[in-house]
Hints:
The chain has 210 residues and is an alpha+beta fold. The protein has helices at 2-24, 29-32, 35-45, 80-89, 95-128, 137-148, 152-167; strands at 58-68, 74-78, 175-185, 199-204, 208-209. Strand 1 and strand 2 (74-78) form a beta hairpin. The mean pLDDT is 83.
Amino acid sequence: MKNVIYKIILILFCIYWTFTLFFIMPKNPLNLSVQKERDFFQANFFQRWSFFAPPPNYNQRVYFVYKNKLTSKKDIFEVIKPILDKKHSTAPFNFYYQTLDYILASSLINIEGNVRLLQDVLTHENFKATNNLKLSDSIVTQKIVSDIEKTTDFKTLAKYAKKIALENKIYILNCTYKIKISKKYIPQFIDRNIDTGKEEISFSSHFLEF
């Protein structure tokens, strides 16, 4: 009986790591062809292989921009820093904010990776295309934005944008929204007491309907 249990555990272990290696390997036509399965894996078995990686030199920020259809008035909310602040201030009873941070962080990592992949693919296609078929930089950007807006990761952020709008009593039927992702650079040690405010937009969606 013990041997059977050990064999079952070994089989499950092998299956788990086979799928893990398949989905965390660099994006390629094979694992991109199973988008739904990849999204399920990222949502439930997401792995971060960053133990030996150098620390990042920036913090990610996400801005939700709401624009009133009638007045064009805009309301802007940055949503990552408040979650981190709440996670720290409510520790160790911070399961909700830990989970929220985990979900949004995995979505941001995937969006960032997909943006780089699409840039590489379109750059390669432009390189092979004849002059009259080459895409301009603005068209390339629009194609990347449109493709990202169709992903599960972007839709996760969109659902949170709706939640934030409702919490702030923004009438969602009367406005459109935009999601902007930025990199806020961390000052070097010599400038640790100086906030340079250096920030770079890495992705900006269209204004969309709820």
